[in-house]
Specification:
Blueprint (H helix, E strand, L loop, with lengths): L18 H10 L4 E5 L6 E4 H17 L7 E5 L4 H13 L2 E3 L7 H11 L3 E4 L1 H9 L9 E4 L9 E2 H6 L15 E6 L9 E5 H15 L6 E4 L4 H8 L2 E4 L12 H11 L3 E4 L1 H14 L8 E4 L6 H10 L5 E8 L2 E8 H4 L3 H5 L4 E6 L4 E5 L21 E6 L11 H7 E2 L8 E10 L5 E6 L4 E3 L2 E3 L2 H8 L4 E9 L6 E8 L8 H15 L10 E4 L15 H9 L9
Parallel strand pairs: 1-11, 3-4, 3-5, 5-6, 6-7, 10-11, 10-12, 12-13, 13-14, 25-26
Antiparallel strand pairs: 1-2, 8-9, 14-15, 15-16, 16-21, 17-18, 18-20, 19-20, 20-21, 22-23, 24-25
Length: 563
């Protein structure tokens, strides 16, 4: 199935707040379910009309306490009704929610908050307690509001404030270039960076998701990635929150997840690759289809082609799988469907890379010479032609222009246009564009091996070995001095298939060597190390921490047959 294009939502003009799009949908369907929580045995829901009233009361209550437009508000509330209502209430007020993901780890989270310097904090009890335990990171906070149960003295009750406030239709007349929110990068290749996103850019993201994925009002979204619930509201879609701990996606119970899909008749599933990798095998082994799910979306990292194939088989005839490509600084950049992806299986297995789709509407993609790191102004002469490998640059209405309090990151990631057009953003990825306009992802530039022949990206090589039936994940890292690194493939075997004896390891190693010779991209790979569980990011349980693996590999003895 190809996504049918629905009419574009109204765009924002000068003096318009992103909450305008939210209010258009709540007023078009006030009695329809806006949000459903299925976190435990109890089912909670709220209509779009009730959600609009809550956001108004929250905005008015906070305004009465001196919170206003431009105030930065650190928000620590679990995914669900409260999270969505508070965030849209802040948008209406013109305040700026600071959405830091606890999955980035305590040390990084505290450092990110200290740099961002919020003046207001809204959180559940354990977050308010953290403020007391780590005062340095929260020293900029002057006003604190608690959500749910909390210890005495830790902030005012937001529920009481909301209950005593009028539902006057407050809407701050924000400009499209005013900051609407501050999000954070995952920090998978360095410290998490604060990314200010404007009201206009949020509206462009809503429109981009609608045009690329074909969303229409009235649909029901299994919302496994909480931030996307904010887009659901602006698209008129019901958000259904399943029982998932965002910090521990690999611990999800597939039985509970499946029950929510079936009982709530969700038409879309917006999940991380880790969740699909748990749910799809569970359903496949039991012969359970997903007849109501016409759109399965995987975001955060590429989804393996074997999972895409199996997932499509569970969907109805008009259903398909979609994997958007983008980043905190730019989403969506490109989208590819399972219908487009599966015919490319041979090219993927041959080491060409991972196809992530054609440019989304309004997005320009450029492949830059990977040696042009020093550039601060775009040089068209350094742009690479069709099929040529280089660094991926993007620009368009969804691309953010700044980082928060990070001038060095700003200089490294943004490339000015000599003709005065918006800056290009360096995605930090290596890739190439083929003759069909499809962008192929080869890996992060910082993860490339530095060899005597130049940079060598890892993903194409890794895809060759993912075709082996015993390989769950793998990572190509360099061993040796910079500029002369030798490739080492670290393999995580599938559950129950780790080769424990030296003989079993040698057998698997021989099979991998034979597979290596099947592709020019991998023909020189001779060193294989086995790892019980590759370290991955907690947010998506998919992005491999290659820096850790590189250090680990450097300390491992090489197999005797490879020396």
């Amino acid at each position: 199935m190809s996504a049918s294009l629905a009419p574009s939502p109204a765009s924002l003009t000068a003096g318009k707040n992103i909450a305008e799009l939210f209010l258009q949908q709540t007023r078009a369907n006030p009695t329809g379910e806006g949000i459903v929580e299925r976190k435990d045995a109890n089912r909670r829901s709220i209509t779009f009309g009730e959600l609009e009233l809550r956001t108004a009361r929250i905005a008015n209550g906070l305004a009465a306490e001196g919170v206003g437009a431009g105030d930065r508000v650190a928000l620590f509330v679990p995914p669900g009704i409260d999270f969505v209502a508070i965030t849209w209430g802040l948008f209406r007020l013109g305040a700026i929610p600071v959405l830091a993901d606890p999955g980035m780890g305590r040390k990084r989270l505290l450092a990110a908050l200290e740099r961002t310097a919020p003046t207001v904090m809204i959180g559940v009890g354990r977050a308010l307690l953290a403020k007391c335990l780590f005062p340095k990171a929260f020293r900029s906070v002057k006003k604190v509001f608690g959500v749910g149960r909390r210890l005495p003295g830790l902030g005012r009750s937001l529920a009481k404030l909301e209950g005593s406030s009028p539902a006057d239709p407050v809407l701050h007349p924000a400009q499209v270039n005013d900051t609407a929110a501050i999000l954070f990068t995952s920090g998978s290749t360095g410290p998490p960076k604060g990314v200010p996103i404007t009201h206009g850019q949020l509206a462009a993201e809503v429109q981009g998701l609608r045009e690329t994925l074909g969303f229409t009002p009235g649909e029901r979204d299994l919302c496994g990635l909480p931030a996307f619930a904010l887009f659901d509201c602006a698209l008129g879609i019901t958000s259904v929150f399943p029982p998932i701990d965002p910090a521990k996606p690999a611990s999800v119970d597939p039985t509970a997840l499946l029950a929510v899909i079936q009982e709530e008749s969700t038409s879309t599933g917006f999940l991380s690759p880790a969740l699909w990798r748990i749910l799809v095998p569970y359903c496949t082994r039991r012969g359970i289809g997903l007849p109501n799910l016409t759109r399965a979306v995987s975001a955060g990292a590429p989804l393996g082609i074997d999972v895409v194939r199996d997932l499509r088989a569970l969907l109805p005839a008009d259903g398909d799988v979609f994997t958007p490509y983008g980043a905190t600084e730019a989403l969506p950049v490109a989208v590819i469907s399972g219908e487009e992806l599966l015919p490319l299986a041979n090219r993927i297995a041959a080491g060409e890379g991972t196809p992530v789709g054609r440019a989304a509407p309004g997005i320009e993609i450029c492949i830059l010479d990977s040696d042009a790191t020093h550039l601060s102004v775009m040089d068209p002469e350094r742009a690479m032609g069709q099929g040529r490998l280089g660094e991926v640059l993007v620009r368009g209405p969804v691309v953010t222009q700044t980082y928060d309090a990070a001038p060095d990151a700003q200089a490294a990631a943004k490339l000015a246009d000599p003709r005065g057009k918006p800056d290009w953003h360096r995605m930090g990825d290596m890739g190439h564009l083929d003759g069909e306009g499809i962008l192929w992802f080869l890996g992060r530039k910082s993860h490339c091996l530095t060899t005597s022949d130049g940079l060598r990206p890892p993903v194409g090589v890794e895809n060759v070995f993912l075709a082996h039936g015993s390989v769950a994940r793998c990572a190509l890292v360099g061993r040796g001095p910079t500029g002369a690194e030798q490739p080492v493939l670290i393999v995580e075997p599938k559950a129950g298939q780790f080769p424990k004896s030296p003989q079993a390891q040698e057998t698997l190693r021989d099979e991998l060597k034979a597979l290596a010779r099947s592709s020019q991209a991998s023909a020189d790979i001779e060193v294989f190390l086995f790892h019980s569980s590759l370290p991955v990011d907690p947010r998506h349980n998919s992005k491999i921490h290659r820096g850790e693996l590189k250090v680990w590999a450097a300390g491992q003895p090489l197999p005797s047959t490879s020396q």
